[in-house]
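Tokens as discussed.
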């Protein structure tokens, strides 16, 4: 058993909402709550929304689809998921996401050595507030510090 994670109910904080890439993420379990072992976000993704191709060097993502149809290009392999499906995106493999004609809702479980995917998405949200995000800057994000490298 991992002794770094408290054995108690973590609770859900639907009060923390992060908006980036035209998506809304509700932080259900934060990296801070798990002492940076993982985080769980519930994404509400509007119809037709597209997340540009990208990859995470440190993050494994698992999408647990609650509603809608979500299409993911994972390293050239086209995956389609619907309610009840799970799609695993291992770190280091480029991927892009597109939602069908209805809103997509997915729980996203992010496992990062040292935690912090929720901090990364919050940094993305800050970049979007400034206008067009600087994707190269976001690609250098340090999950532990919550800031870009260098």
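Sequence:
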């Amino acid at each position: 058993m991992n002794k770094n994670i408290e054995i108690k109910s973590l609770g859900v904080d639907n009060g923390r909402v992060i908006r980036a890439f035209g998506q809304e993420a509700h932080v259900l379990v934060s990296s801070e709550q798990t002492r940076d072992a993982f985080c769980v976000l519930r994404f509400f993704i509007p119809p037709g929304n597209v997340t540009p191709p990208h990859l995470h060097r440190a993050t494994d993502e698992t999408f647990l689809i609650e509603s809608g149809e979500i299409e993911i290009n994972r390293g050239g392999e086209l995956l389609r998921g619907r309610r009840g499906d799970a799609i695993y995106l291992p770190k280091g493999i480029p991927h892009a996401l597109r939602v069908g004609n209805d809103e997509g809702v997915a729980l996203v479980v992010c496992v990062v050595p040292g935690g912090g995917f929720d901090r990364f998405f919050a940094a993305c949200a800050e970049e979007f507030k400034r206008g067009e995000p600087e994707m190269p800057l976001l690609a250098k994000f340090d999950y532990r510090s919550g800031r870009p490298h260098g």
